[in-house]
């Protein structure tokens, strides 16, 4: 995947571009290794899993894991299994999110969704398999077992209880009432924010970062996750469907930031969250966080 497919900022330094491209290549290579081969039986399941994972995407979450690991002085390759696991979890949530009984999306990243290509039944099972494969993959690699257990605890806490799954349920229920600002915050910090937060913390845990930076890095991840979902809401409201890669103007019956706050206030909140995220990052790593600060700015400027 070329970085220009996901980057919309101009004037980005060659060094930063090359670093993100390096992370993406590492992540895609790891995913190729850890996912089942589509020539094995049942091949339709493995083809569906690989179709979902390799249909494009920013690889933002696993990139956060690797970048955090490197900032704290460790080789990012050390956490490749865990980064790949995070992308599998993220992809599982998208496959299920797109299903007719949830968001009923026909396209994801400009391509037909998994259930449109393989059928609803195989899409459900492909999502289930990605979820299971993620935890198997997270136990791979050379980091100590004690760290793997801590990482698994971080990821399971992000998913459920009071995590991604609860956020998804609250998102569905928001269509049946007049959602409030508090509803929006709960949904966005759980459905989207929890996995972004955990992607940061997996890098922190796996790299032996000092414990005194944990609160700052967790807050960095939390702010980034909330800002990311607000930007998604804004793109749904005014984005270019050909760039976003899916049908837009669908979320105004939900707890969308654009609906609840309005465009101007939602954009203001998003920018404030990103600035607060960068402030916390600087408290943790001082001037070593340039790449992560640029990723935070990407949240604001991305077009898909």
Provide a concise account of the structure shown.
The protein is mostly helical and 304 residues long. The chain has helices at 14-34, 43-53, 60-71, 80-97, 114-118, 120-138, 145-159, 164-173, 181-206, 214-238, 241-244, 257-261, 263-285, 290-301; strands spanning 107-108, 111-112.
> How would you describe the shape?
globular
Widest sheet: strand ordering: 1-2
CATH architecture descriptor name: Orthogonal Bundle
Amount of beta strand: under 5%
Helical residue percent? 55-70%
Task: Please give the number of β-strands.
Answer: 2
* Helix-strand sequence: HHHHEEHHHHHHHHHH
- CATH-defined superfamily: Farnesyl Diphosphate Synthase
Stated plainly, the CATH topology is called Farnesyl Diphosphate Synthase
**Radius of gyration computed on alpha carbons:** 18 Å
Total helical elements: 14
| Biggest sheet character | 2 strands, antiparallel
Q: Report the span from N to C terminus.
A: 15 Å
CATH first level: which class? Answer: Mainly Alpha
Detail the poorly predicted runs. 1-11
Structural class determined from secondary elements: mainly alpha
Nearest-integer average pLDDT: 91
Total number of domains: 1
Main features:
Farnesyl Diphosphate Synthase; mainly alpha; two-stranded antiparallel sheet
Word description of this protein:
- This protein has 14 helices and 2 strands.
- It has 304 residues and is an all-alpha fold.
- Strands 1-2 form a two-stranded antiparallel ribbon.
- The chain has one domain (12-301): Orthogonal Bundle (Farnesyl Diphosphate Synthase), CATH 1.10.600.10.
- Helices cover 68% and strands 1% of the residues.
- A hairpin with a 2-residue loop joins β1 (107-108) and β2.
- It has helices at residues 14-34, 43-53, 60-71, 80-97, 114-118, 120-138, 145-159, 164-173, 181-206, 214-238, 241-244, 257-261, 263-285, 290-301, and strands at residues 107-108, 111-112.
- Residues 1-11 have low confidence and may be disordered.
- The radius of gyration is 18 Å and the shape is globular.
């Amino acid at each position: 995947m070329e970085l220009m497919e996901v980057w919309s900022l101009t004037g980005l330094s060659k060094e930063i571009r090359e670093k993100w491209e390096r992370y993406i290549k590492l992540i895609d290579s790891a995913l190729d290794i850890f996912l089942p081969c589509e020539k094995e039986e049942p091949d339709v399941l493995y083809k569906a899993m690989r179709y979902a994972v390799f249909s494009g995407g920013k690889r933002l979450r696993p990139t956060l894991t690797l970048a955090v690991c490197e900032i704290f002085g460790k080789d990012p390759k050390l956490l490749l299994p865990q980064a790949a696991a995070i992308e599998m979890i993220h992809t599982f949530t998208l496959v299920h999110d797109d299903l007719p009984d949830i968001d009923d999306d026909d396209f994801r990243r400009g391509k037909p969704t998994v259930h449109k290509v393989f059928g609803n039944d195989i899409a459900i099972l492909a999502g289930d398999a990605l979820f299971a494969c993620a935890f198997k993959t997270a136990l791979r690699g050379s980091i100590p077992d004690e760290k793997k257990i801590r990482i698994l605890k971080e990821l399971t806490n992000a998913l459920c209880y009071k995590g991604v799954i609860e956020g998804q349920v609250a998102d569905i229920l928001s269509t049946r009432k007049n959602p409030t600002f508090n509803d929006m915050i709960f949904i966005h910090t759980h459905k989207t924010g929890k996995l972004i937060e955990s992607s940061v913390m997996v890098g922190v845990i796996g790299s032996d970062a000092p414990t005194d930076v944990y609160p700052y890095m967790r807050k960095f991840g939390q702010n980034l996750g909330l800002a990311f979902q607000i930007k998604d809401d804004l793109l749904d409201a005014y984005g270019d469907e050909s760039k976003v890669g899916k049908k837009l103007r669908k979320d105004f019956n939900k707890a969308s930031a654009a609906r609840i706050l309005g465009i101007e206030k939602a954009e203001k909140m998003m920018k404030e969250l990103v600035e607060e995220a960068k402030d916390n990052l600087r408290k943790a790593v001082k001037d070593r966080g340039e790449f992560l600060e640029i990723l935070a700015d990407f949240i604001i400027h991305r077009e898909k």
